[in-house]
């Protein structure tokens, strides 16, 4: 058996673990969330900052309703969006140098 065939299960496992972590953190895959946000009216009319603020406001409401797991997921989504923006801005700086 060649090495690539032996590595496929490990790669699949890593992908499955990553997807599982995303589902636990966000209740959906990161790519699904980003796609939905990019298609959203809020993003297109008001930008990413308003989307982040909306997720945090929704998390506050969920906390008030004692839905702590969903609140945690919304906060995780907001953090993920902040990190995505930071990465994008860092990439922009390195390409403009």
The level of helicity is over 70%
Query: Distance N terminus to C terminus?
Result: 47 Å
Low-confidence stretches: 1-5
Round the Cα radius of gyration to an integer and report it.
17 Å
Structural class: mainly alpha
State which percent range the strand residues make up. under 5%
Q: Compute the average pLDDT.
A: 88
Domain tally: 1
Question: Would you kindly provide a brief summary of this structure?
Answer:
By secondary structure, the chain is mainly α. It has helices at residues 3-26, 30-39, 41-46, 48-64, 68-95. Helices cover 88% and strands 0% of the residues.
Task: Give the helices and strands, then pairings.
Blueprint: H1 3-26, H2 30-39, H3 41-46, H4 48-64, H5 68-95
Protein described:
It contains 5 helices and no strands. The chain has helices at 3-26, 30-39, 41-46, 48-64, 68-95. Helix 4 runs antiparallel to helix 5. The radius of gyration is 17 Å and the shape is flat. It has one domain (3-95).
Key terms for this structure?
97 residues, disordered N terminus, 0% strand, single chain, mainly alpha, flat
């Amino acid at each position: 058996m060649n090495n690539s065939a032996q590595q496929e299960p490990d790669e699949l496992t890593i992908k499955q673990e990553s997807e599982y972590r995303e589902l636990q953190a966000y209740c959906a895959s990161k790519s699904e969330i980003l796609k939905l946000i990019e298609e959203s009216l809020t993003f297109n009319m008001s930008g990413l900052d308003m989307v982040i603020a909306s997720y945090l406001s929704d998390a506050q409401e969920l906390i008030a309703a004692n839905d702590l797991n969903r609140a945690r997921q919304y906060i995780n989504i907001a953090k993920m969006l902040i990190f995505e923006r930071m990465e994008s801005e860092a990439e922009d700086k390195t390409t403009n140098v």
